[in-house]
Amino acid sequence: MAGPETPKLMVDVIVPSEEGHVLLIRRDTDPYEGYCALPGGFVEVGETVEAAAAREAEEETGLKVEIERLVGVYSDPDRDPRGHNVSCAFLARAQEGELSAATDAAEASFLDSSEVELAFDHEKIIADALAS
Amino acid sequence: MAGPETPKLMVDVIVPSEEGHVLLIRRDTDPYEGYCALPGGFVEVGETVEAAAAREAEEETGLKVEIERLVGVYSDPDRDPRGHNVSCAFLARAQEGELSAATDAAEASFLDSSEVELAFDHEKIIADALAS
Asked: What pTM was computed for the model?
């Protein structure tokens, strides 16, 4: 594609439950293998960030979600040890489907995020999403 | 850089004046040569989106700005004829410096954005920034 090299574009999705838990996957690959993380991944060329967020949530957890709003853009160059990956974080609501791990997620469930070890800057993203 | 190809990451900056005008540059290159546009450009690897927004505003207009808040992320694949470029738009406040065109901007001034032809989806970005 034309244009200079830029950071890679990613999405993360915060899906709260009525009990205040958050939809998390347990990572089965490096980095942060074994840690919990928000569903998310790289945006594809030709796809909006909202579509990428819904696609990644469904691929990784089996749940269809409705995107509610943008929480923020997380762009600290050191936030991801794989390289400079900038994440657009979206708050979403679970619609339908059955919870099941898929693709690169080992396990998906609604968990109390304060009781698990979270990968990347996902503790901050969750705090921002639930605070506003 | 490792990882799959993603859309390119850009920033645009909305700097309103007290009179309700908006800081705009007149483009002297394709696409949209001769149209007005928000100051903005590609994010560099290793740079936060907020730093990129402040850098582009100063490079293109001579003004130092303080970033106030994220307005939105604009990711329609057809928004930029050069390719799939996703823009993080920031509202900012002018701090100091003298208005002057630089680098790829032919002319920089505070204009009534409803009275000029705007490039890309900048009419929508300005409306979103000033509405909220």
From this structure: 0.93
Q: Does the annotation count A19 as an active-site position?
A: no
Instruction: Say if the Cβ atoms of A73 and B49 lie within 8 Å.
Output: yes
Helix (H) or strand (E) holding B46: none
Q: For residue B100, how many other CB atoms are within 10 A of its CB?
A: 12
Min Cα separation B58/chain A (Å): 19
B78 vs chain A: nearest CA distance in angstroms?
8
B69-114 pLDDT, tens digit each: 999 999 999 999 999 999 999 999 999 777 775 555 568 999 999 9
- Cα gap A121→A92, rounded to integer Å: 18
Q: To which H or E segment does residue B8 belong?
A: strand B8-14
Which of A9, A22, A100, A102 is closest to A53 using CA atoms? A9
Task: Quote the longest CA-to-CA distance of chain B.
Answer: 46
* B1: nearest CB among A8, A46, A73: A8
CA distance A62 to B21: 47
Nearest residue to A119 via CA among A29, A42, A50 = A29
- CA nearest A49 in B: which residue? B75
What ipTM was estimated for this complex?
0.93
Q: Which residue has the tokens 């390719």?
A: B83
Check A75 against B48: CB less than 8 A apart. Answer: yes
Residue with tokens 């993380």: A37
Dihedral sign computed on CA atoms, order A19, A20, A23, A29 = negative
